[in-house]
Specification:
heterodimer, A: mainly alpha, two-stranded antiparallel sheet, 74% helix, B: 13 helices
């Protein structure tokens, strides 16, 4: 039983990490209509930015901010240099998916000669242990949970109570209509890539902190869990992605305790398949995966 | 150029041509973005391997796997093709029925990553990460596989399969059925309106493609005699997509051209770049970057590929310029 209580604690951390990644992914998709398969690679690139700063003796918390900034700028440039020109050219939905997959392949392999094949890990990232009723977590894991909660509240505030958030929701619902109402959709889209890119970068750093060690190859795994949570919640739905993250995070950690830790991503995939068969539109979306493309 | 090198090149070319004809039928003609194509090729290869291998207690039991039936020659290849088709059925039923096309693509991509992970971790199934080795080549009990005449015999066998697949696929693409497929790809709602059932069409093409992919895997494993998770990672599918995009989507000749240009030509040319330049792994990594650039470059500058799909115009059909003119006024 203790095993499951401990796994519950890890589930809390895991869901926090996934929530940050999945909300960024789903907002990117919902507002810009772009399934960015390079998301996992941007996450891992940001994790490496924090790693090199950390290695130079800088605190991991500053590294985290640097990772978020890097993710924001990287995603913004990715859109400006690659995705936006293809979209303007009228490339189909599927064409864009193939482009983003090619980009993902290129990022991973440009990074590989720079950072090497070896697994690396941050220094001094564990902190002290805190025990509460069978749950054992490090102070840094508690901090990750705190960061995730604050970020989710900030996203909620942004979408509900600010002009930018309103403009984002309008752009997501109908870009042409939004532009006709005087919303500068181009700038809104730029802002979305910066904000979701920051979430992506931050998610990369916390995901790397939460795993013992990481390497380039982890990018695909990061993408799968974020995708699973986003699809489970209903693609393009930030609140859905939060719920999806809670479910995926908890189920994968409990299954790791009950079964085998190397099949965590397989369990996430199993959930993804079940959702696609039983409720392709996801938990929250009305249309989601069922709607006609583009 | 020695015999082995020539045979090796020709057999790889044949296997890639067969695979790309299948992928072209799925992606180029029917618009199914099968990002897990390599999984079906792997299914064929593994099946052919366990059908032709002796039971796993042989060879000192250094590898573990199920099966090991030691079946005579054509059966492992047929088994590989059947396995590719059988695997396509459940995957197709889950992915192709309700999902939007971009969701289909990501679901298949994730499937490809996860399947590889499962086979790598589940060692008792197919010997895990180490994979299967010492797969007996076809008819090796009758002809010595280490002679050059056997090499050419294998090239001949591959060539027969290439011709059979090409004839089959060409007939499908140029038939009224192929026209339905293209109609579905171009505008699914319009295809439904004239009474086509897109789910049925997609499932059929998916299964036919799976059968051909399985056959290509079986041919390959009979020649290279080993099969491991590291040879069917998901980026291998991206190479095949690059070949289709370069060759020309929807054009069978383009698919063959793509096979010769990208997986065969590109690999052969870059083989001569010394791998000692720069940090370890630099050159292989840059090869992948080049594949990515190839896809993006072609989609930008020449989205129809080297050999674009021929436009089919029928007698009495309105001339395109007239239609454009009518629309403009």
């Amino acid at each position: 039983m203790d095993l499951y209580v401990a796994a519950f604690g890890f589930g809390l951390v895991s869901m926090s990490v996934i929530a940050i990644a999945a909300v960024g992914f789903t907002m990117q998709f919902g507002i810009t209509n772009m399934i960015n398969l390079a998301y996992g690679e941007v996450m891992i690139s940001s994790a490496y930015v924090a790693y090199y700063l950390n290695k130079a003796g800088i605190s991991i918390w500053i590294g985290m901010i640097a990772g978020a900034l890097f993710g924001a700028v990287f995603s913004f440039l990715l859109n400006r240099i690659v995705y936006a020109p293809f979209l303007r050219k009228g490339t189909s939905h599927i064409g864009m998916v193939i482009v983003s997959l090619a980009v993902s392949l290129m990022i991973a392999n440009l990074l590989l000669p720079i950072v090497g094949y070896y697994n690396v890990s941050y220094q001094d990232t564990t902190g002290g242990l805190i025990r509460a009723g069978g749950i054992v977590l490090t102070t840094n894991q508690i901090a990750i949970i705190g960061i995730a909660v604050v970020l989710m509240l900030l996203i909620h505030g942004l979408l509900r109570y600010t002009r930018l958030g309103k403009a984002m929701r309008a752009t997501a619902a109908n870009p042409t209509l939004a532009r006709n109402c005087g919303i500068p959709t181009q700038r809104v889209v730029d802002a979305v890539w910066l904000i979701t890119g920051a979430l992506c970068g931050l998610a990369g750093v916390v995901a790397a902190m939460n795993s013992d060690s990481f390497a380039i190859a982890n990018g695909a795994g990061f993408l799968i869990t974020a995708l699973a949570a986003a699809v489970l919640g209903g693609a393009g739905q930030p609140y859905g992605a939060m719920i999806g993250a809670v479910i995926i995070g908890m189920v994968t950690e409990l299954s790791a305790a009950a079964w085998a830790p190397e099949y965590k991503e397989v369990v996430a995939f199993g959930i993804l398949v079940a959702v696609m068969v039983l409720r392709p539109q996801g938990l929250l979306a009305k249309r989601g995966a069922l709607a006609a493309a583009g | 150029m020695n015999t082995y090198y020539a045979a090796n090149l020709l057999i790889y070319a044949g296997v890639d041509i067969i695979a790309l004809l299948a992928l072209n039928l799925q992606f180029g003609v029917s618009g199914i973005v099968n990002f897990s194509f390599i999984v079906f090729q792997a299914a064929g290869a593994y099946t052919a391997a366990v059908l032709s291998l002796p039971p796993d207690s042989a060879n000192g039991g250094f590898q573990i796997y199920f099966g090991g039936y030691q079946l005579p020659f054509p059966l492992p290849w047929l088994g590989g093709a059947v396995a590719g088709g059988l695997l396509s059925i459940p995957v197709g039923l889950v992915v192709l029925r309700k999902l939007r096309s971009d969701y289909q693509a990501i679901a298949l991509l994730v499937l490809s990553i996860i399947t590889n992970e499962v086979i790598t971790n589940a060692r008792p199934l197919l010997n895990g990460a180490a994979g299967l080795a010492l797969v007996p080549p076809p008819l090796s009990d009758q002809i010595d596989p280490n002679t050059s005449s056997y090499q050419y015999f294998y090239v001949g066998l591959t060539a027969v399969c290439v011709v059979l697949v090409f004839v089959l696929v060409n007939r499908v693409v140029n038939s009224p059925y192929g026209r339905s497929l293209r109609a579905m790809r171009e505008r699914e709602i319009a295809a439904v309106a004239i009474g086509k059932n897109p789910v049925q069409l997609k499932l059929t093409v998916f299964i036919v493609g799976g059968v051909i992919a399985g056959l290509s895997g079986a041919i390959l494993v009979g020649f290279i005699q080993l099969w491991a998770p590291s040879v069917w990672l998901y980026p291998e599918t991206i190479i095949l997509f690059a070949a289709i995009i370069v060759g020309g989507r929807g054009n069978n000749v383009g698919a063959i051209l793509g096979a010769l240009l990208v997986p065969v030509g590109f690999e052969e040319v870059t083989r001569f770049i010394p791998t000692t330049i720069g940090p370890p792994g630099l050159i292989p990594a840059l090869q992948w970057v080049a594949i990515g650039l190839l896809i993006i470059g072609f989609l930008w500058f020449r989205p129809d590929g080297v050999r674009p799909e021929p436009r089919h115009v029928f007698d009495g059909a309105p001339v395109l310029e007239d239609v454009d003119h009518a629309r403009g006024t």
